[in-house]
Amino acid sequence: MIYWDHAASTPPYEDIIRTLTEVMDKHYGNPSSIHQLGGDAVKLIKRSREVCANALYVKPTEIIFTSGATEANNLAIKGAALQYMSRGKHLITTMVEHASVYESFLQLQQWGFEVTFLPVDSHGCVRLESITAAIRKDTILVSIMHVNNEMGAIQPIDVIGQEIKRCNALTLFHVDGVQGFGKVPVDLKTWGVDLYTLSAHKFRGPKGTGLLYVREGLKLMPLLTGGSQEFGLRAGTENTPHLVAMAKAMRMASEGQPNFTKKVSIQRNRILGFIRNIEGLHLHSNEFGAPHIVQFSFPGMKSEVLMHTLELQGMLVSTRSACSSKQTAPSRVLLSMGLSHQEASSGIRISLGDSHTEEEISQLEHALRAAVEQLHPLLEQGRN
Ligand code: PMP
């Protein structure tokens, strides 16, 4: 089997698994305990926070550990909305966000907030003019993802960040950075980002672990109350083994990013090249998108059929974002880019990691050509 679903989750490095089990085994004390084992855990967490902060060039006190990006996105969006609602109740996001962002905004709408969902162009990018036009005096938060998880579009976060602050200096800017970190350069300070979300399992760390960068001086309404962990922003016993493992993976991802981008972009371009040449396939990603994501469709053929045909040939691809793959409606993201219902129902995502070989790419091409050839007669039958 060859795994082409790195945007859904990545295989943890062996070293990360070793670290995780070692910390679980030896440093099981509760960091809130005031004896020696508790103290050991506190030191490990402190060091992990420093490593994560260094990878983002921010301060350790600006890092809040969470149970993953879903929680970090919920905390950023609902926490900011509830904290700053006395300034205004208008929020802005896009139509192509991950479910953990999109659904948070839908919930806030039910709670009486007004939400503007910005459209995207045919490449999946938000137009700067639409952001400028949407920002008002009472806009308290804008949330825009860096890299789209379904088709790899990269939003110009630096320009967007500057424009938001130019229009309203008090409007907070949250970025879901899950698919961008380690894949493309990240520069929070220059971008003017106030809140930034990451998930460890997207950069070869453990699942169920992530973080939220919260710019110094910002307040959020905590969603989980209880103990005073994470500077009072997220109650609950810290997950020491996972945090230590995430920090290690984060340092590796950050240091490895330039090589990742270079190597994987070349492989991505090869894949884009052969998909363009297979009759019947429509390509939706391009060379300007994230290096690790390729999205295409085989109009008329349900995504699941092509996915399973490829699986029988040993190729594990994805129909869409893993969190939405059990939904039957066509992808909201692809429909927002202007794709037809038929195209959006037949989307396939190939996502690359740092260890694919040229030989594996050749095998993927071979499998894809064979699968399309095998399925073509079914399309013809469907038309008759
Ligand atoms: N945002 C994006 C862009 C994602 O791709 C994902 C994972 N599919 C998440 C948020 C949620 O991450 P987690 O699995 O850590 O909850």
TrEMBL record:
Metal-binding found in the keyword field: yes
Aminotransferase class V domain boundaries: 2-364
SUPFAM superfamilies the UniProt entry points to: PLP-dependent transferases
Top-level taxon: Bacteria
InterPro entries membership: Aminotrans_V_dom, Aminotrans_V_PyrdxlP_BS, Cysteine_dSase, PyrdxlP-dep_Trfase, PyrdxlP-dep_Trfase_major, PyrdxlP-dep_Trfase_small
Keywords per UniProt: Iron, Iron-sulfur, Metal-binding, Pyridoxal phosphate
Phosphoprotein among keywords: no
A GO MF term: cysteine desulfurase activity
Cofactor: pyridoxal 5'-phosphate
Name assigned to this protein: Cysteine desulfurase
Taxonomic source organism: Paenibacillus antarcticus
